[in-house]
User: Which sequence fits this backbone?
């Protein structure tokens, strides 16, 4: 009975340390983050008319930095969409105007669903909107320019969260039929998605293998990595330096997580169900903190329009190729460390039988502490790379990928690093290549359907081992 008060002092000090760190990071973010651009302000008056709209990607995220041109009635104007995807022109003479969008400035993997220009009748003391819906389907045709009616609302985007196919910069020909060019384009996008997912899935699998905890806050580690990269990119202006600082901070955050939250719970012998519920609460708390300090806007780590490179008919951005290379090197490094280093052998021993590992002289708590550190650092790196490839990161980016991470881990075999990698590659390919035959809204559903089938046929996953219960 006297042990609890004796341990409460160190526990309070550790909890206080992590709270101070979180508060410090939040204060830095609130003071140093640039203020998001405000929506275009055009108030109709007897002498002014407004022509405006919002451009969003097919997944519903704003498309900043898109160039819009206006011509007509002897007036020519050019503007760009702001951080919220808004654009607007003030018109001083009523009449017919043509609004066109520069397709080269669209986000990666986005194409015009209908037309790239509109002809509109604009009246003074009135507000007119033009719609430019986008799609992630490269076979979608760009139809001839049409007219948008006054007072239209913003487009209702289709598609869902996730990585898109690479942009070609030119309107695609109309074709709903299967094409090998599109097949290989989607295949390359699937490889890219799988490599990026595998980083976060590795951390999730290692934590489960050594502790048995299903960490539902792993998605928020991904979001935090992207947001911190955005913060330090705005401070340093150097993407590589910002990435290194972010990964170091995320690894330290993982270390503090285990020291202040998970280790005390293990010492108190809380059940895995209780620890899972704590991870869910931690995830929700982090989401609200992200939204409070960073807002709901899309944060672009790199604001420049990415360049594209075509290899063997497959077009991807330079950032995509670099991200794939970094992810592959990180995965190989983790795999070699687990197989050939002393710590790797200790990690595998703890994952196989913690009690026997401790009896043989392995410091189980130290192994778990390093696993949390490495796992969180890998998730932060995945957040950076996804933020670059997706051309932005938001407070709920990680949450939208969480089910895919669990699907990858379960498919490959829970607790196995190699299984997490193979599972992530399969899920990435399924998600991207499902777009060839299924609507964009269903591509994540296809991956989750595979998860259900695997659980019914082989619950232990592809590389998992059967265990006898009872």
Assistant:
């Amino acid at each position: 009975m006297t042990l609890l008060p004796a341990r409460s002092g160190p526990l309070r000090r550790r909890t206080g340390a992590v709270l101070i760190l979180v508060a410090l990071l939040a204060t830095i973010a609130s003071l140093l983050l640039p203020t998001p651009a405000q929506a275009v302000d055009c108030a109709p008056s007897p002498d002014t008319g407004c022509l405006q709209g919002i451009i969003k990607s097919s997944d519903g995220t704003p498309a900043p930095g898109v160039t819009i041109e206006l011509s007509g009635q002897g007036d020519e104007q050019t503007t760009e969409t702001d951080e919220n995807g808004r654009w607007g022109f003030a018109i001083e003479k009523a009449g017919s105007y043509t609004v066109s969008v520069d397709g080269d400035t669209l986000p990666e993997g986005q194409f015009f669903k209908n037309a790239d220009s509109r002809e509109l009748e604009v009246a003074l003391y009135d507000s007119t909107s033009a719609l430019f819906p986008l799609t992630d389907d490269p076979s979608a045709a760009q139809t001839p320019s049409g007219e948008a009616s006054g007072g239209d609302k913003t487009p209702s985007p289709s598609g869902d969260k996730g990585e898109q196919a690479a942009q070609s910069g030119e309107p695609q020909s109309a074709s709903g039929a299967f094409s090998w060019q599109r097949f290989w384009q989607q295949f390359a996008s699937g490889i890219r998605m799988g490599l990026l997912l595998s980083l976060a899935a590795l951390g999730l699998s290692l934590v489960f293998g050594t502790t048995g905890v299903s960490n539902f806050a792993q998605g928020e580690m991904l979001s935090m990595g992207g947001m911190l990269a955005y913060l330090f990119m705005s401070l340093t202006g150097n993407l590589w330096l910002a990435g290194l600082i972010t990964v170091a901070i995320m690894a330290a955050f993982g270390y503090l997580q285990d020291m202040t939250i998970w280790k005390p719970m293990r010492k108190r012998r809380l059940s895995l169900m209780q620890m899972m519920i704590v991870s869910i609460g931690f995830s929700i708390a982090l989401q609200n903190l992200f939204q409070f300090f960073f807002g709901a806007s899309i944060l672009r780590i790199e604001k420049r329009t990415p360049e594209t490179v075509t290899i063997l008919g497959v077009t991807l951005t330079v950032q995509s190729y670099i991200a794939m290379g970094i992810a592959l090197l990180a995965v190989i490094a983790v795999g070699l460390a687990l197989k050939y280093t002393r710590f790797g052998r200790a990690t595998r021993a703890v994952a196989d039988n913690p009690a026997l590992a401790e009896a043989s002289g392995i410091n189980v708590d130290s192994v778990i502490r390093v696993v949390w550190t490495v796992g969180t650092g890998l998730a932060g790196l995945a957040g950076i790379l996804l933020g670059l490839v997706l051309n932005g990161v938001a407070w709920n980016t990680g949450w939208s990928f969480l089910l895919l991470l669990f699907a990858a881990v379960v498919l490959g075999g829970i607790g196995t690093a190699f299984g997490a990698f193979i599972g992530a590659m399969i899920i990435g390919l399924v998600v991207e290549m499902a777009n060839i035959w299924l609507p964009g809204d269903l591509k994540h559903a296809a991956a989750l359907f595979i998860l259900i089938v695997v659980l019914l046929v082989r619950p232990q996953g592809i590389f998992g081992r059967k265990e006898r219960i009872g």
In short: The radius of gyration is 25 Å. The first helix runs from residue 3 to 32. The longest strand covers residues 95-101.
